[in-house]
Amino acid sequence: MLSLHRLPGVPTAKQPLFPSTSTFTHPPRRPTCLFPQSKTLPKPPKFHKSPTALLQWNRKPQLSGETPRVVVVTSGKGGVGKTTTTANIGLSLARLDFSVVAIDADVGLRNLDLLLGLENRVNYTALEVLNGDCRLDQALVRDKRWSNFELLCISKPRSKLPLGFGGKALIWLVDALKSRTEGCPDFILIDCPAGIDAGFITAITPANEAILITTPDITALRDADRVTGLLECDGIRDIKMIVNRVRTDMIKGEDMMSVLDVQEMLGLPLLGAIPEDSEVIRSTNRGYPLVLNKPPTLAGLAFEQAAWRLVEQDTMQAVMVEEEPKRGFFSFFGWSIANLLSCVGGSGRGARRKLCTVQFWGTKAEARD
């Protein structure tokens, strides 16, 4: 290709009209395709999110009431989860940066140290403090995971309660905890023994609040109603309720009372509802409370929410959610499977004798349940 060159004697020369390919580069062309493919963006990685609570975790709960708040955890009936609730709520309060002292008031049958994993560190008890064999700080067992949580056992296993130990002795222990040099604790949780005998009267004497633990069965509800009357007679008016071991599948099948039914029967403000969780047995055997599990379980989150409400003296309200009946194959004929089985089998709870007429593909069959 021809190109212009500078002539001798001429100071400047014009640029070439048609520059060569060495001085000019064409912009790159996009490849043409008859059927262009759609752009596939890389998918973001999937993160398995653990269940989180619905409370405002971006702030610390505001402590209500005068300190220390002496709270007794009771039920009347045994095996409903008093010790499990005391351990999990106590550590939840400690994780919220509150100082907590848990007192196991069950004489001879203490289990709170097992649930916390502190059974090998209990050298002195409250009885030895009262007898003058040790100091109060020696009987308090500090948890290594959370230093603001301490445990005090009334007596050693397989020991009998002396005649001189009663409500006044427990009041003296609570007053000693209030006036110790390390500072007054924010919460004093008392794990009450089962029953309504002398151990129950001793445990509720120094308390000004009560957490009533119950399960959705009639035996626990009868005992809970009886204990509520005894607490009110003792002057404890601030009583809140925790419904433990709730199973939603049995509630939907109408085989268990709902939390709303329990609240209507007892007439107490609801502090929390704890679902049935198999992890409770594993955590009990390991001496590791549920609230310390990672990732947290549903029962552990429920205990944390109950502790949050306890700090702010708040309650929750149980509601009833009505679900629309699922439309199946027999709904085309105006019948559901449950109605068909109830008419044919007649094994439903509370079923009455009645005459049903079932139309099925044009045929008419009469069934008496």
TrEMBL record:
Protein name: CobQ/CobB/MinD/ParA nucleotide binding domain-containing protein
A single cellular component GO annotation: cytoplasmic side of plasma membrane
A single MF term (Gene Ontology): ATP hydrolysis activity
Protein keywords: ATP-binding, Nucleotide-binding
Matching InterPro entries: CobQ/CobB/MinD/ParA_Nub-bd_dom (IPR002586), MinD (IPR010223), P-loop_NTPase (IPR027417), ParA/MinD_ATPase (IPR050625)
Domain CobQ/CobB/MinD/ParA nucleotide binding, first and last residues per copy: 71-289
Region (Disordered) location: 1-31
Family: Belongs to the ParA family. MinD subfamily.
BP term (GO), one: negative regulation of cell division
Species the sequence originates in: Arachis hypogaea
Pfam families, per the entry: CbiA
